[in-house]
TrEMBL record:
Function field: Catalyzes the sequential NAD-dependent oxidations of L-histidinol to L-histidinaldehyde and then to L-histidine.
GO molecular function, one term: NAD binding
Cellular component terms per the entry's GO annotation: cytosol
Binding site for substrate: T230, Q252, H255, H321, D354, E409, H414
Catalytic reactions on record: L-histidinol + 2 NAD(+) + H2O = L-histidine + 2 NADH + 3 H(+)
Pathway: Amino-acid biosynthesis; L-histidine biosynthesis; L-histidine from 5-phospho-alpha-D-ribose 1-diphosphate: step 9/9
Lineage: Eukaryota, Fungi, Dikarya, Ascomycota, Pezizomycotina
Protein name: Histidinol dehydrogenase
Gene Ontology biological-process annotations: L-histidine biosynthetic process
Length: 446
């Protein structure tokens, strides 16, 4: 039995609404204009949206060095520590993906290789907050995968170069860094301009305009995910600490006014106490306005009779972040299927994943966890195959099989490629080969 102690506002859709026509139209206009007018259009949009029009959007090495030098030593040390965690996990992921070759029958070799994408554009948001962590998650992960050239784009903040973000991008291994934000950055990297090279793949989170830009450009370039507002779901039993529950719900609600935060619990007491604390704790929270709006419109508290019901309901939500505050948190690994990332036990929190622990924070939202995971090393690799047949008899047998299989689908041209090998290596006779040979002989006499 499911009982709602709090539901989201009747006027909201939990962040699942379709992109507004005005956003889509604006984004299309930006992309089309940059496609036709290149750098000039990029400059106009940057001035219009960010009040930013430097002589060069690309930072020189001296500007990058100055940005790093302007950061307090503790920030640089922390960036390096976090990037060590991200690099170690990404390298472990890369090592789990292997090339292989198998001989499936005598003289028939099939292989698989994992080839890095050649060029990647990483978008690092910077509207409300300088998201240093997104540099680690996109640029560094791409580099560990073996991507040769990574461009990083991030917007100015209040008309200034965001030194911390630039430091994170540089230390992550970006080959070029541009202070350029919004759709104009995504479009420039996707279509290419006189000064910004065209990339093969774009990664990184962003606002509704950036997300819509990636959606419209998908196909022309690859993308990591169709990202939506940040989501958090906590599954708790009666042993959970309501103060911790409330703190962690608010930690994600502060992302924006449309970030869903949901608690599913087997304890009505935990539910009520957590709700009361969510209302109380923002009093000394600098981002209280955002967190309160998000909680008011998109927050939910649901009481269920058992953890089995909780696991089932959590899978229906299929949220980006799922925290497990139960006596046996690892049970979720067995019982749940649909999530972007699991955070097991009260010693763990989503903020660790967002900022420092090493797993990637670019994760599926809006129920996309039903069919995809988040950004990881594998997203920057193309898994390709190759084939080689060295045995004449095996080639001939495959040719016979190919002929039959292709004619079952009425693909005569395919069938004849198989017939030819059976003819060459086992002397099979085919009327079309005899006819073609006769024509070839007559032609050679002329």
């Amino acid at each position: 039995m499911v009982r709602h102690l709090k539901t989201k506002s009747d006027t909201t859709t939990g962040g699942v609404s379709s992109t507004s026509s005005s956003v889509a139209a604006t984004v299309k206009d930006v992309i089309d204009t940059i496609r036709s007018r290149g750098d000039a259009a990029v400059r106009e949009y940057s001035q219009k949206f960010d009040k930013w029009s430097p002589s060069s959007f690309k930072l020189s090495q001296s500007q990058i060095d100055a940005a790093i030098a302007a950061c307090p030593k503790q920030i640089i040390d922390d960036i390096k520590a976090v990037q060590t965690n991200v690099r170690n996990f990404a390298q472990a992921q890369r090592e789990s993906i292997r090339d292989f070759e198998v001989e499936t029958q005598p003289g028939v070799f099939l292989g698989q290789k994992n080839v890095p994408i050649s060029s990647v554009g990483a978008y690092i948001p910077g509207g409300r907050y300088p998201l240093l962590a997104s540099a680690h998650m996109t640029i560094l992960t791409a580099k560990v995968a073996g991507v040769q050239h990574v461009i990083g784009c991030t917007p100015p903040i209040a008309g200034q170069i965001p030194n911390g973000t630039v430091a994170a991008m540089a230390l992550a291994g970006a080959d070029e860094i541009f202070i350029l934000g919004g759709v104009q950055a995504v479009a420039a990297m996707a279509v290419g301009t006189e000064t910004i090279r065209k990339v093969d793949f774009i990664a990184g989170p962003g606002n509704a305009f950036v997300a819509e830009g990636k959606r419209q450009l998908f196909g022309e370039v690859g993308i990591d995910l169709f990202a939506g507002p940040t989501e958090i779901l906590i599954v708790a039993d009666d042993a959970a600490d309501p103060f911790t529950v409330a703190t962690d719900l608010l930690s994600q609600a502060e992302h924006g006014p449309d970030s869903p935060a949901v608690l599913i619990t087997t304890s009505e007491r935990v539910g009520h106490e957590s709700m009361a604390l969510v209302d109380e704790l923002p009093k000394n929270l600098p981002t209280a306005a955002l967190a309160r709006t998000s909680w008011k419109d998109f927050g939910e508290v649901v009481v269920v009779d058992s953890l089995d019901e909780a696991w089932k309901l959590a899978d229906e939500y299929a949220f980006e972040h799922v925290q497990i505050f139960t006596r046996r948190p690892r049970e979720a690994l067995e019982k749940m299927r649909n999530y972007g990332a699991l955070f097991l036990g009260e010693k763990t929190c989503v903020s660790y994943g967002d900022k420092v622990i090493g797993t990637n924070h670019v994760l599926p939202t809006r129920k996309a966890a039903r069919y995809t995971g988040g950004l990881w090393v594998g997203k920057f690799l193309r898994t390709v195959t190759y084939q080689e047949v060295t045995s004449e008899s095996s080639s001939a047998e495959l040719g016979r099989l190919c002929g039959r299989a292709a004619r079952a689908e009425n693909f005569e041209g395919h069938a004849r490629s198989g017939d030819l090998r059976a003819h060459k290596y086992l002397n099979d006779e085919y009327g079309w080969i005899a006819e073609s040979s006769s024509v070839e002989m007559k032609s050679s006499r002329l």
